[in-house]
Amino acid sequence: MLKNPNFSLKIGVFLSIIIMVCGMWLIHYDIQSQTLTLLSQQNKINQFYLDDFKKIQSNVIRTLADNGEIQTYIDDNNSEAIKLLYHCLKADSQIMQIRLIGLNGDERIRFDRRRDGTLYKTPINELQNKSDRPYFKQFVSLPKNSVGFSDFDLNIEHGKIDIPFNPTLRLGIPVYKDGKKQALIVINYYMQEWITHLLQYNHSHFYLVDNEGYFLIHPDPQWAWSRYQSDKKKAPDFFHQSLEYFSPLLNEEYRWVNSNTIAFSFDLYGKKLLALYQPEVSPNEILTRRLIQFGSIILVSLLLIVAPMVRIIRLNARRIEEEKNKNERMVLHHSRLDAMGNMIAVIEHQWRQPLNSIGLIMQDLVSAFHHQELTKEYFAESQKNVMHQLQFMSQTLDTFRDFFYTQKNQHECNLLHVVHEISQLCDMQFKTLGIILEIRCKNKTGEMYPVDQEKHPEIFNLSTHSTEIKHILLNLISNAKEALNQLQISQSSKHIIITLSAENNILCIDVTDFAGGIDPSIADKIFTPYFTTKKSGTGLGLYIAKTLTEYFMQGQLSYTTDTKEGWSTFHLMIPK
Prior knowledge:
This protein is α+β, with helices and mostly antiparallel strands. It has helices spanning about 5-65, 70-75, 80-90, 135-140, 190-200, 235-240, 285-300, 305-370, 375-405, 415-435, 465-485, 540-550; strands spanning about 95-100, 105-115, 120, 150, 155, 155, 160, 165-175, 180-190, 205-210, 215, 255-260, 260-270, 270-280, 410-415, 435-440, 450, 460-465, 495-505, 505-515, 555-560, 565-575.
């Protein structure tokens, strides 16, 4: 037993100091780790948002390059090509300029969207030669069907930068006719809306820095595009750090620029930039608050020091969890944009046939008119056929609108109808790819039969979010389609089976493909966010599907696979 009370007091003070130091370190480490996790997830969401823009706009410009009217304009200057470019500009408010440029750099057609929103066709005598511009030299060397992206920069006209600054990103693609490169289509996108999104909707202050240390994006307009400002200040001047803190990073790497700022690699269409994030409430401020609370508790009672530490950490965890939930909602929003991209591809296949039919009918009418064979009866019959095709296209748009109509509350629906809608949407695309989509039902004894032979369709009634079921199924079917399309297999093996069954109060949907099965080495990772085996994949598809299933419908999403037999099945189970 210790007889010296002063010694006991010293031991108590020493232990208290040790506990306080350990507690400070634990709180500091916890705050730094959680801040890093949040900002890393935010950076991935921003990258996903940009990649989604790239995917959608690449499809648009490829469609223009493949259009026959554009290819015909190269020889005969037809007005239909001019109308097509005009309506493309009119339809998308993000496009500030669209041009057809010859291989010598001369602009042949040019439409602009002025700052007041009006559209303007540049007269022939005002068209410019762009052969000396870096983006032209980049785009003119592109191979067929390749889309090029310029540097993210300010718009330049007649050798001068637009004032006020006009952030611009250019997309370019060569136009081929009869196997030869004839011209370029170049679209300028007004990127201020994207910058505003990054500055306003991030849960932190956002900075984008180029490889030389100049700011491209900055919350303070006086620092934005610092290369073009009179004082040409760089990131080291703003953060008071050496230039080495702003050197490029590899993917998944990060760097603490200072105690409140983290830098991540940011891929802007092939160019590695540096994205910097500062939380609205800095980690140091959070740490100070926590330490004040912690120190007060230590002073009040050394005996209760552990309990306040746990309480502080839990408060931190709850706050981080709330922030993660916000980010998850943002991910769900971007998943809808990705689903919309898939749906646009479906509409393209759905519309191709009626558009071809209308074109043939119009050619036939012109021929009949020139040969004086155009009778009232023939004209009326042609009109009827055109209206039939237009009605089909209108119905496709209605289906597209219904597919993305979101109902906030659960509502009554029938699973057979939901699956039927998905089947109709994918029908034309699957026929083009040679994929067979089979829908069938399974009774309680395990017997399989075609879905149209179901005698009691009411057993598939349920109260749920039908839009979310559509998103999940479209995701699973799209994954199966892509897997089949990548394999060199026989036409008969390109087969996807959807099986519906009802047991007690659970409805089941099985989606089976025969694309080789799931590799055991990645089987436990397929539902992990940002894990992907595709070159252009986001790694969010199955993660989103599982989140929707469990969060919105209190259901389950699982899978079984057999690599020897070459099949895999995803099981979606939803309570009624």
